Amino acid sequence: MSMPMITLDNVTVTYNRHPAVHHVSGCFEPGSLTAIAGSNGAGKSTLLKAMMGELSSVEGTIDRGDLLVRDFGYLPQAADIDRHFPLSVADTVMLGAWREVGAFGGATRAVVDRARQALVAVGLAGFEKRDIGSLSVGQFQRVLFARLLLQDAKVIILDEPFTAIDARTTHDLLAIIRRWHQEARTVIAVLHDFDQVRAYFPQTLLLARKVIGWGPTEEVLTKENLLHAKAMTEDWDDQAGVCEAPVLEGS
Ligand SMILES: Nc1ncnc2c1ncn2[C@@H]1O[C@H](COP(=O)(O)OP(=O)(O)OP(=O)(O)O)[C@@H](O)[C@H]1O
């Protein structure tokens, strides 16, 4: 059996000493396609940011195995992305290849061809010279998927990729996620639409500050678990302190 690719062991993440997620343990297998689901404030984005190494107050262990930073492709929530830069669609997609190209290096013909193919794959052929500020929300999301295609990452982490995205665009981008899965990449996506999760994502991590369920989607998204998750998130005290270490019997 292959070794787990990303293993979380008792991960707790705090903001100003208040836990946003706590005691999360489990693993993302290589090539798995996992949805992270949960209510607003359940800690989904926090967990992704911790996995990306973006947060400093992380307790427990996030073991990324042999993976390097370059092996991760990360799409943050749209609200965290500033697109008021005077960047063209082509330049934005090319950012996916910056590790290959380097800060001042020139892109090879092969990289430019791959960027062009990525734009075709997301249905934006001919948009190369458009300013990203002039795109619709859905078109911009397609550009960001093209950038991920170019990056060619082993692990792809998407934070609410379909929020405010229309059905047609969502359908097209889900097809790309499916393609990544068929290519045996590990894909992790925060999603709010349970029907979508059931239809496309074999694995689910249901989060409500802690893990409510993590495994095959049909076993995790039960009515009971969803009610439990909702109640947990609603009852959570944002000012709660970090749990004390459990007292071991006999100590
Ligand atoms: N930078 C921050 N500073 C302080 N608290 C934060 C910060 N970011 C998130 N939080 C808090 O951590 C908790 C979890 O937030 P997080 O954004 O991870 O939830 P989420 O499940 O992704 O929610 P949503 O579905 O609304 O995006 C919330 O109570 C939030 O207010």
From TrEMBL:
ABC transporter domain segment(s): 6-234
GO molecular function, a single term: ATP binding
Pfam families for the chain: ABC_tran
Segment forming the signal sequence: none
Record keywords, A-Z: ATP-binding, Nucleotide-binding, Transport
Similarity comment text for this entry: Belongs to the ABC transporter superfamily.
Name assigned to this protein: ABC transporter
UniProt organism field: Terasakiispira papahanaumokuakeensis
